[in-house]
Amino acid sequence: MNHTHTNHLIKENSPYLLQHAHNPVNWYPWGAEALTKAKNENKPILVSIGYAACHWCHVMERESFESEEVAKLMNEFFVCIKVDREERPDIDQIYMDAVQMMTGSGGWPLNCFAMPDGKPFFGGTYFPADNWMNVLKGIHNAWINEQDKVKKVAGQLAGGIRENEIIAVKAEVSRFAAADLEKAFRQWESEFDSREGGNNWAPKFPLPNSLQFLLRYYYFTKNQPALNHVTLTLDKMAMGGIYDQVGGGFARYSVDAIWKVPHFEKMLYDNGQLVSLYAEAYQLTKIPEYKQVIQQTLEFTDRELSLPEGGFYSSLDADSEGVEGKFYVWEKSEVDQLLGSQSELFCEYYGITDRANWEEGNILMIQTDKKALADKYEISVKKLDEVLEKGRRALLERRKDRIRPGLDDKSLTSWNALMLKGYVDAYKALGDEKYLNRAIKNAEFIQKYLWKGKAHLHRNYKDGNSKINGFLDDYSFTIEAFTALYQATFNEKWLLKANDLLGHVILHFSDEQSGMFFYTSDEDPNLIARKMELIDNVIPSSNSSIAKSLFLVGSYLGNSRYVERSAQMLANVKPRLEKSLSYHSNWGQLYFWLANPLIEIVVAGEDAIVQKRKIEELFLPNVLISGSKTESSLPLLQNRYVNGQTTFYLCKNNTCKLPVTKVGDLLKQLEAENGKQ
């Protein structure tokens, strides 16, 4: 295909950058060439940041970046840099902070104007074409006529961005007690939506980690409202349009308060975490619908987000044929034609009507109770399930003929690790070996394609290439995933690899002053600030993740320095956690580990893998499980192996119960121990 324009993005791997490679804008990727050009020509930089599945990024590209008239201004006045926020979250963090400071809000597309040295001075998100032209002219005018004022603003913003990362170090590591979180929980509870689940506002994002915290809060405090909120939220999401009722998997968020109309993009990181969340909720409640959500979501992942090499793709676009959600919605006439006599029942269950329930068609959303519907049609619930499943499969088959949403086919290490852990957690909850095998395949993919040298990770992989140094979340989530894989397989190589990665993190990411960790390695080129992630949001912060890994790996390997550093990190963050528990929920999970000594369970013997299944199918967030089919030198396993039998040990605070040879006896010991807490 012949293109009128080709810019410097043509050599990039990122699907998002390649989407802009034939814009008339003379885009550069972030790097020395663009930054040197800006300094040599004394031009401000325009940093434009987005991602491949972003609907409004596409809109701004069509309206402005594909316009010859707009591009002429951009090329004349600025050095224009395009950034894929998923590949370069370090750059995104800096300019997002700047725009939030200037405007009070942020989002994508993110468009930020900066000095030739990269210091930002003005920015915003989506601009309609006319506004954008005025902004370009206004910024150019300010640069030519008021450059001193621009420099002053840039200096103030850069200082503010750096100050954001300052964290007070607690000289003493205080005692952690679960009761101390009650006030913070009450404050958070006031934000619960008691009808629809989630928080009491729109749009609604699934926040898997915060709900995982609430599962633990219930477990340790027996606070029933915490569990009720989790199950209400999970029920409503699974019934809603945010969940793909036909193909499985979750969209990024719903634009309304009832989980009905999704922003249709599907992200790997959401689905990996939500599988882990539903798996834990299933372990605790055994609600059968949660099992179905896990199975369907992993079917979707295998079908639509899996590389042949064993990795996972990043996302599916919200749009197809330029229309948001077109791939996912249905006209009733099409469903009638597909399902025939069973359409009426199917349509009533999923709320499909002639008028349609959304502007582009019918979004499938569970509208009625199965028992009530089965009674109405005088059939059994089992028969109803068969009709619904047959209909769902028919729609999924028909959907294959539609033009698909765009696929972001790069693989990111951190997101792969989140999905790897999702598969491990699904295996633990449901016992299906195929989930464990898929997790191992992904771990081997990370080792082969993203692991460089002894313990050096890259961020991204596509078409045989990986060239961006890993960031802290790439390491921290991989360490968590490999530790979980050890727990599921008792293969010590995964634990030892996790420890190798942890050593690399301590060497290259540490802030020696606070004991926290920077987001970027000291091997990377400097940006205007070296950021430090502390807040848990849609994805947990890399600092809370690495703190949990220090605790877990330290506990497994008997490394007290790791455990002490983990406690120091939590002590530093504790004042923030007590003010805003919902945005420090992953820290809150670590809090429980440090407030309640972990129970250590060791399974040693030839039948260790089979026997541990009866333990890990339970929700036990205060249990550290390890084991081996043979002799092991791991501290928890030394002198535990007895030839010819499988033996169970339950220990706490360096004291062990009498060993037992039946898993039922171990579970009785565990029940008695938990009863004391």
TrEMBL record:
Pfam families: Thioredox_DsbH. SUPFAM superfamilies: Six-hairpin glycosidases, Thioredoxin-like. InterPro entries: 6-hairpin_glycosidase_sf, Ssp411, Ssp411-like_TRX, Thioredoxin-like_sf. One of its GO terms (biological process) is carbohydrate metabolic process. Residues 6-158 form the Spermatogenesis-associated protein 20-like TRX domain. Transmembrane segments: none annotated. This is Thioredoxin domain-containing protein. It comes from Labilibaculum manganireducens. The lineage of its organism: Bacteria, Pseudomonadati, Bacteroidota, Bacteroidia, Marinilabiliales.
